[in-house]
Amino acid sequence: MITEIVNYFETIPSSHRSIMLFGGIAFFWIIESGIPLFKFKYNKVHHAGINLFFTFTTILINFSLAGILFKSSEWATTNQFGLLHWVKIDNLWLQAIIGLLLMDLIGAYTAHYVEHKVKSLWRFHLIHHTDTWIDTTSANRHHPGESVIRFIFTCIAILIVGAPVWLFFMYQSFSVLLSQFNHANMKMPKRLDKIISYVIVSPDMHKIHHHYKLPYTDSNYGNIFSIWDRIFGTYLKMDRENLTYGVDTHMSSNENNTLSNLLMIPFQKYRNPIE
């Protein structure tokens, strides 16, 4: 079975990746419309339009730079470079599990953590946090500049892990679907959400990261696996009823719900949070 899975991701068609992206958005859109966590009073189509614009810019950047990922993976595999090769893990199941864990640590958790701690990078990541109506389309609300930053960390992760092509395609697929899942505005039973959060990042766990004030904004950085926040002490809890989405420096709608302003935020004068 694992051989078939590896073969699939090694040659995954672009059409299948598109289905995962847009099919996932459609799937969670339907669920959150039926059982919403919060009944937002907003223009859902307009909100989705802004977030889908950033989705398309991310796709364009990733597509334009995809050759670098391929070359990095091929070089690592050919030269037996990276942790998977150095510790000589031959079992494909172990390669998949350990590889996904490490790719998630370096390509997602670390990238996300650094974006919060380095002011120049935070300016780009800030666009993701300005969203005051978190739903499944919010998952890909990334400024084009942040898409480049994330791409660089993914490339670094491939080299450090020594990820073969099938592994980073598997990682990207899981990353997209899990991000759509944990951003979705759907009301899951609290007990089920808690159980899920011991392994993967659940909706309640991630949405705490989107609370508008510190220290919650600087917590729960994980994307696929919840283990990294627990290990590195960045895990926080909060009752979902107390959540307020957004970021306290950009709470007005003309700042967080206007495409032209969102694109310019990284280049505007930095402001301290409101009192």
What's the gist of this structure?
The protein is mainly α and 275 residues long. The chain has helices at 2-10, 14-34, 44-78, 83-86, 92-117, 119-129, 144-161, 165-183, 190-196, 203-209, 227-231, 253-256, 259-264.
SSE inventory with pairings:
Blueprint: H1 2-10, H2 14-34, H3 44-78, H4 83-86, H5 92-117, H6 119-129, H7 144-161, H8 165-183, H9 190-196, H10 203-209, H11 227-231, H12 253-256, H13 259-264
Helix pairs in contact: 1-8, 2-8, 3-7, 5-6, 5-7, 5-8
Task: Please give the number of β-strands.
Answer: 0
Query: What proportion of the residues form beta strands (DSSP E)?
Result: under 5%
**Helix and strand run:** HHHHHHHHHHHHH
Structural class: mainly alpha
Given the structure, what is the number of helices? 13
> Which stretches are poorly predicted, pLDDT < 50 over at least 5 residues?
none
Outline the biggest β-sheet: none
Task: Measure the end-to-end span.
Answer: 56 Å
Calculate the mean pLDDT score and round it: 93
Helix content: 55-70%
Q: What would the principal axes of the Cα set say about the shape?
A: globular
Global Rg: 18 Å
